[in-house]
Amino acid sequence: MTAVDRPAPEAPAGPSPGPAVDGTGTPPVRERAARGTPWLLTAGLLAALLVLVPVAAGLGAYPIPTGDVLASVAHRAGLGGTALDRVPESVLWDVRFPRIVLALLIGGSLGCAGALMQGVFGNPLAEPGVIGVSSGAAVGAVAAIALGLDFLGTFTVPAVAFVTGLATVLVVHATSRSGGRTEVVTLILTGIALNAFTGALTGLFLFFADSAAVSQIAFWQLGSLAQATWPKVLAVLPCAAAGLALAPLYARRLDLLSLGERPARHLGVDVERLRLVLVLVIALLTAAAVSVSGIIGFVGLVVPHLLRMAAGPGHRFLIPGSALGGAAVLLAADLAARTLAQPAELPLGVLTALLGSPFFLWLLRRTRRRQGGWA
Amino acid sequence: MRSDGSGTGGTPPKTPRTAGGPRLARAARGLRLVSAARPAPPPAPAPGDVLAEAAGLHVRLGGREVLRGVDVTARAGEVLALVGPNGAGKSTLLAALAADLRAAEGVVRLHGRPARYWSAAELALRRAVLPQSAALSFPFTVEEVVRMGRAPWAHSPRDDDAAVGAAMAATEVTAFAARSFAALSGGERARVALARVLAQRAPLLLLDEPTAALDLRHQELVLRVCRERAHAGDAVVVVLHDLGLAAAYAHRVAILCAGRVAAHGRPAEVFTDGLLTEVYRQPVEVFPHPRTGAALITPKRDETASLTSA
């Protein structure tokens, strides 16, 4: 069992001898002190997105004043405003906006997938990147690119990524749990093994690919949104939208799952079915993110964790909150990636790993100190 | 599970396709073809109703036969204590009564129906289970944990606050309702877990060593709560190690030994020197309390005392 950090003093023995179990004389139940926090955080995240989107649309190698951005959006939405000149209008609508929408979709998917995964594994360190599911999806994507697969049109890469990502989640799911929980060490080691294996497979496909495909894959592997186009947005939209729409339905059951498998079942949760559905949803979200942008790590780890620290672990807020937070974080990170080293562009995956890895290290130490994965 | 359906008149047949409307619906639900309708809570049991029953129950775990032909019944209005030495199969029997484990032979019936014919949601309205150790993956507060016990009642949240408040008061955890479960001591966690189980308000309570981590006062408190629940019409099955507690609070006791029921009956009938000495392979004496006359049970220590003094 878990070591207790601070053995708390026993409750003062109340003067009421043997309180009745039935509803009469119920003492008032104290509310969580931070009950309003989820709403505040949601409002804050939405506000951050509302500010970030026009700012990100305006900044870049070809700066467009924010006022112009808003005017162009209003114009297209039929709310007055004015269209811009041909060049800024094209930069805005053919380059910036697909990229922003893609960042929002992928960030949301990654944040949401992280929150779900931590709930399913009962472990705050689970994340698609850490345990190898992202690399699993990447194998499929690389295979599709290298072999020039095209059987589903633009949806080919996400579809193949979904299949291999799903296979990887199932492997992790089958090998790393015991008694409904996953020990930190088992999880991380499973991740190492899977990352090595999927890395080897990716290398194999790279070895057999022609040079054009190699450079495409190499760039993609670093994790980037630089090649965002509307067709690509459309390609990930089904996976991401399905995953994001399904995930909140399981929030309450994920709360119960944190008690362990059996207690959750005792409370009426069909645990096997819940796990199966959630593994599918995680694979959908991861595939959506990985198939276009490559492996962007740590968003799914950092975002749910910070939100859990701020607003408690209840999944009814955590899941939509992590989607919102992931979208905001990835949009900001992408903005930084393409503006910090202008005119060059930092690979986004490199940037998130640079910032995320130290956080992960800190989290590992903290979790280890508390033994067994209590966040 | 092979012989599960044998001996019960009203059980659904193995091939539900040939069966009538409600059975077909249940089978379809079992196959997840249609989403389950909200299960209705069971009617309040009458005193003496059998809410859980194991008949000729054999359970195998990891190739070993842990239960070898167990018959027990849990009746509404009674506290049934399961006692016995380590490894006798007490927790296994409790898990089987909770419908967690499958019977290799024999049958477990809950509220009159073989356990496997109930869905998880239906079971959640009929029995609440306290596991031996309470774990939690994420730092929920005490009140949030207790409130999880209300999950089976999600479609009628009217009584939630009252049930949660009463359960926390009964287990004396109200004072730290807003604290994180992770920051509690072992005994406090055990009481919070019990509060969650009480908040579920199921007519059958299955408690696995609810007193293990508790101090003297809270051991008594927990068993008083068991008696109160039985008095209110519930059936309570509780695994205990403390024979004194079992003698004082249980209406009936089943002594398990090596996967069988060695004795079954009122505490005064089954707690005898000879039987306990044999079951526990340790000399035990039973004598009346000088003031109340209640049975006191202690291991015989004369020899050890004389050994240390020698």
UniProtKB/TrEMBL annotation, chain A:
Residues 1-31 are annotated as: Disordered. One of its GO terms (cellular component) is plasma membrane. It comes from the Bacteria. InterPro entries: ABC_BtuC-like, ABC_transptr_permease_BtuC. The chain crosses the membrane at residues 39-62, 97-117, 129-149, 155-172, 184-209, 276-303, 346-364. Pfam families: FecCD. Residues 9-18 have a biased composition (Pro residues). It is found in: Cell membrane. GO terms for biological process: siderophore-iron import into cell. This is Heme ABC transporter permease. The lineage of its organism: Bacteria, Bacillati, Actinomycetota, Actinomycetes, Kitasatosporales.
UniProtKB/TrEMBL annotation, chain B:
It comes from the Bacteria. Residues 1-10 have a biased composition (Gly residues). InterPro entries: AAA+_ATPase (IPR003593), ABC_transporter-like_ATP-bd (IPR003439), ABC_transporter-like_CS (IPR017871), P-loop_NTPase (IPR027417). Pfam families: ABC_tran. Keywords: ATP-binding, Nucleotide-binding, Translocase, Transport. SMART domains: AAA (SM00382). Gene3D superfamilies: P-loop containing nucleotide triphosphate hydrolases. Residues 1-23 are annotated as: Disordered. GO terms for molecular function: ATP binding; ATP hydrolysis activity. Signal peptide: none annotated. Residues 52-283 form the ABC transporter domain. This is Heme ABC transporter ATP-binding protein. It comes from Streptomyces populi.
